[in-house]
């Protein structure tokens, strides 16, 4: 099946991106790319400091050998401020760690990402309007209003960037706040505690995943985003609900299995290959000693090709923290 088949609904793809398929980039766009909405929840807002968790809260795993303890926590990059996730077991694991690992170490670094967006996300020589029908341009203009823009202002964007930019807006409108996401909260705590922060990937890596998609796939992503724009929050709501309750089986079904069945190639690129790379890096970390806390998109820690499954297949001990 062609890659474009997996792009049949924008909500499914947005949910995957927000959970981890292109999480750092989606987080950046939520933080700075949605004028008029991304800042609706200011840093001065006062949500509950510690929203109540559901049950035991999100799942947590631990990877151990004789002298290393590595905690694995599945994150959601944008959350409503009222979603509880900082359970006692997560807090204890984080506090015990000397080093903190994310997908990328600097998702909020605009100075680093803006030149990459300019290099890989803009194409003024091939404007979007020349690649869309007049009806689609009108749809683009209407959707762009939600991010304080217009079709004319987005005309220089490559399709993948336009699609991802538009995909973030419904989340913010529905109350999802990037400042309430797991990474931003943990990054602030790590910095306050003087804990070193590391990344498995770079911003360039994450941008490349989308920028290097075939052109027809990028256009399919944009067209389906426009077609299903109003439904974008539905799947993410289901995923967040499962994640917040530690329901990994439902998270796997909603976030992972559909991608795997619809587009094995995209599944391989966005999940399997990255999970394999991260498992390699974790095994390298195990050669040292000490305690680290690892937070990556929750989709990477669900299913038969998850980071934990790959590690277990290599004889590494991985256990759920109860």
Give a written overview of the molecule.
α12 (264-286) crosses α13. The model is unreliable at 1-21 and 33-48 (pLDDT under 50). The protein starts with 9 loop residues before the first helix and ends with a strand. It has helices at residues 10-21, 23-32, 88-96, 110-120, 134-144, 159-173, 182-193, 203-211, 215-227, 232-244, 248-262, 264-286, 307-313; strands at residues 60-64, 68-75, 99-102, 197-199, 290-297, 317-320. It is globular and about 60 Å long. It contains 13 helices and 6 strands. The longest helix has 23 residues, at 264-286. With 322 residues, the protein is α/β, with parallel strands linked by helices. A hairpin with a 3-residue loop joins β1 (60-64) and β2 (68-75).
Summarize the amount of helix as a percent range. 40-55%
Oligomer: single chain
**Shape verdict:** globular
Q: Strand order within the widest sheet?
A: 4-3-5-2-1-6
What is the overall pLDDT average?
83
Number of strands: 6
What is the ordering of alpha helices and beta strands?
A: HHEEHEHHHHEHHHHHEHE
Q: Major beta sheet, specifics?
A: 6 strands, mixed
Topology of this structure?
Layout: H1 10-21, H2 23-32, E1 60-64, E2 68-75, H3 88-96, E3 99-102, H4 110-120, H5 134-144, H6 159-173, H7 182-193, E4 197-199, H8 203-211, H9 215-227, H10 232-244, H11 248-262, H12 264-286, E5 290-297, H13 307-313, E6 317-320
Parallel strand pairs: 2-5, 3-4, 3-5
Antiparallel strand pairs: 1-2, 1-6
Helix pairs in contact: 1-2, 1-10, 4-8, 6-9, 10-11, 11-12, 12-13
